[in-house]
Design a protein that fits this description.
Shape: globular
Oligomer: single chain
Largest sheet: 7 strands, parallel
Number of helices: 11
Strand content: 5-15%
Order of helices and strands: EHEHHHHHEHEHEHEHEH
């Protein structure tokens, strides 16, 4: 795998890298063609610059229960459903299994802390990227592990014409959250396509793992503090430094996909 953080402005270099990664993806899955029809976006850290708020609220709310979660640790659990994150923490630190009800009550405290944080702004460049995608005839799906109703409510309002509720998968729609592939498989079902007809845009290691397990070509945008290796080691086909880099490279990527 040649997955690298794409910071170069050299079109030929980018074309060659995209071509190589697409061929490797096709070879791995025994495909004769790669025909993208939809792009599946994660939400936190991809559509919204909301992860700093999540990290802060996780740290502060869990401390009230005696669980230790450093702010930066929140990025390693990103994409996992909140109740599952709490159960995992409790198992590791307390050595016991929480009930669903116990975890849900603790998650509500985390949600309260998150709602008290400043409003998370849209990720710079993502709306322009989505408009390019839509103008190219591809559909847009949102696949998030979030159960933050305050943030979910904003999606259709702030991404009007780009995001729709019927093409959104949340923690309420699945039994197993990321890193299980179920959320992305559910996203494929909602738009009626096969894995080889989708592209995922993620920022979290567990989200990348879920998308790769679902058999989808996966692009990571490293909007957090984790090293690129945390994303490539989970199988990301490409890693970009920021959303504006992916936005600017979109035409080349789609062109390479369509010529193969």
């Amino acid at each position: 795998m040649i997955s690298k953080n794409l910071k170069t402005n050299n079109r030929i270099t980018i074309e060659l890298m995209f071509e190589t990664e697409i061929y490797q993806y096709m070879k791995k899955h025994g495909l004769e063609a790669f025909t993208p029809k939809a792009v599946l976006f994660d939400m936190d850290g991809v559509l919204y610059d909301s992860m700093p708020n999540h990290a802060k609220s996780w740290h502060e709310s869990m401390a009230k229960f005696g669980l230790d979660m450093a702010p930066e640790e929140a990025y390693t659990y990103e994409g996992m459903r909140g109740v599952e994150t709490i159960k995992l923490l409790a198992k590791r630190q307390w050595g016991r299994d929480l009930t669903d009800d116990e975890a849900a009550k603790m998650y509500e405290k985390k949600s309260e802390a998150f709602r008290a944080c400043p409003k998370a702004e849209k990720m710079v460049g993502v709306e322009e990227l989505m408009r390019k995608i839509k103008s190219d005839g591809l559909k847009i799906v949102v696949v998030t592990g979030s159960g933050q109703k305050s943030l979910l409510k904003r999606l259709e309002e702030e991404f009007a014409g780009l995001v729709s509720g019927d093409l959104t998968v949340t923690s309420f729609d699945v039994k197993r959250g990321k890193p299980d592939p179920e959320p992305y498989l559910r996203g494929l079902e909602k738009v009626g396509i096969k894995p080889c007809e989708g592209i995922v845009v993620e920022n979290a290691p567990l989200g990348v793992r879920a998308a790769v397990a679902a058999g989808i070509f996966t692009i990571a945008v490293n909007t957090g503090p984790l090293p690129d290796e945390a994303l490539t080691s989970e199988g990301a086909n490409l890693v970009f430094a920021k959303m504006t880099d992916l936005r600017d490279a979109w035409e080349v990527l789609l062109s390479e996909a369509r010529k193969i």
